[in-house]
What does this fold into?
Amino acid sequence: MGTEFLKIKECDEATEIIQKLFDEKLNQQSEEILVTESYGRILFEDVYSKMDFPPFDKALKDGFAILAEDSFGASEESPKTLDVIDFLEAGATTDKKVEKGKCIEISTGAAMPEGAESVVMVEYAEKSDGKVNLLTTATPTQDVARKGSDIEEGKLILKKGDFLNPGKIGVLLSQGFETIEVYKKPILGVISSGNEISLQGEGLTYGKIYDVNGGMIKNAAISCGADAHFLGIMRDNYDEVKHKITDALKEADIIICSGGTSAGLGDVLNSVLEELGEVYIHGISVQPGKPTIIGVIEDKLVIGLPGNPVSALMIFNAFIAEPLTKLAGIDKDFELDTVKGKMTRRIHSPVGRMQYQLVKVDGKDIHPIFKDSGAIFSLSTADGYVKVPKSVELLDEGEEVEVYLFN
Amino acid sequence: MGTEFLKIKECDEATEIIQKLFDEKLNQQSEEILVTESYGRILFEDVYSKMDFPPFDKALKDGFAILAEDSFGASEESPKTLDVIDFLEAGATTDKKVEKGKCIEISTGAAMPEGAESVVMVEYAEKSDGKVNLLTTATPTQDVARKGSDIEEGKLILKKGDFLNPGKIGVLLSQGFETIEVYKKPILGVISSGNEISLQGEGLTYGKIYDVNGGMIKNAAISCGADAHFLGIMRDNYDEVKHKITDALKEADIIICSGGTSAGLGDVLNSVLEELGEVYIHGISVQPGKPTIIGVIEDKLVIGLPGNPVSALMIFNAFIAEPLTKLAGIDKDFELDTVKGKMTRRIHSPVGRMQYQLVKVDGKDIHPIFKDSGAIFSLSTADGYVKVPKSVELLDEGEEVEVYLFN
It folds into this structure.
């Protein structure tokens, strides 16, 4: 009892311990995936260009590839005439060479033939019978993108931590990358607990309710960039909890259990963790959600959330979402996901514990949602929550508050 | 030539035509998916509660289920004594009944036994030898959540268009929903065109470049909520384009082609569309990206983007992303995805065409990215683009502009 009491933590302390456990026990890992399947993933490495781009001097317009000096002085009034010795489409090559008095007709995107310096656009040329009249003077390199002018080989083009959006995917593809190293999604197993819960699709006998936490916390973890799996339901007895967690540890880096009464799973999970590993937090001084357990087994995290779905999601959002998102390599500023507004009604809060008050945001109006903490339907209307510090007994109507938004 | 000229559209007109084609030719469709796999999907139907929640009168605390009047007058000084006739865990039921002078020990989450009205918390009771001393007076319904108090059967709980976040998924699970109707992702096929392009993994012979648009536009469509597939490369000849598009139409609702020189694919695609369907737009008065084609075959959309990847992505973002996102059921306010700031350098713009200028955003500083339009590496640094209206020749340093952000 004494030890357990010592493991009840204030919110700030709990936040710090959990972040530290994530940092010390769990490694950011990488995996190689196809670039074409990489939308939304996070680069695990700096990426350098493998080749000059464009990889050759490239015509930027449809026209005639010439020696620049062959056009000097040309105008509509006094055109210069050249022999057209070949036609070069994009993707094609020629062994003919551009020399004084000769040119090659060329398409946008084609590699400039040997000798040629400039392109005279088709709009400034008149072609007939194997000859062309140039109607304008071209500067050297006009309408030519020089080899490596966009990027040279060996340059840093993307950085570790970059979010792979379509543009960055395009950059990788242009360099011929078929695969790329991205952050591996942390593997997370979710287990629900409690004699009263049934799975959807099973009949619901009297006294039972459907399991919510399994599917909900799994999806909350997915929203943080994890590869999360629901591993089913266990009963709150020592052997079953030990067996289920030992099994889950073979697959997952992080296990999140929830449910049972606060006395039930909490105590059993605590004992199992003490046998197999170490308990770091047993209770957080917060309402709702006090019965939260954080432990470590073989450098993997085992988290016990309250069974009440509203409390479980609040604790997940307030304490687990940020370190999990960081572990997934996502550089998200959680501080930015807040909005400010004014309370539309007064709320009372228990002194001595941090309270998380669910609210609905309507412009600058912050409406508190009053429901007992088991009221799952508050989750369909809540936009986020307000933190009421443990020393504050009352938030008055009209008081300015900061809302931590869900998602 | 006359007809084609008529089909060159100003930006606003093109936006309107494309939205109208999406609205008229393509239907928002639904599919049934597992609730546990539904994170990020969009509800296709209003959802009503299937049952009262809680589905029974539920104990909110561990304690003793009693008739309220049996506790009236009880205090620490003068406890009231009752017989404990049973113990009820969450999920269990009993056929015993609470009557005057009798109570049932009960766990949080258990269904209240017949006859019982209130729960006296275990903290306010002393149990010994089949009896309990109540140390406090309970009001009727104290620490009991009444059947249906959270939500009654038949109430609207979620709305068509709702984004399925973890909380809303929790609400669906609590009602026993195994599956749910969500917006079906529009099926989109992406085809690249051009003799000069090679696939990643193939060797790159002289004069060739890697295909960028296939993987990039596919992922841009995925970012808009589509189920997008890259269907490979075609050459710019009539038979191959006709064959490839006819094939793709069997699977996809929308086909996006790109590539070839502006004269190449544009003309071929135009002819194929005129044979099999109808061309609505052939050219948009915008830089970059003029050679854009929008047509319809059998109520499916066929879109031809410029081959230049920067132009292709710009046209996609400026004209296709918004109607595609709406088709996917996503209620996104594209106007919100803008930021304002000041140009850090002067830019010139061609008169007579809308120009999209790529920029990098650094706080309130908007840096124009100067590169020829073939410069794919601008896509790794660009945050978005500024629209320079066709009548404007110059945006001066320090001028305030609005940036349309990528993603």
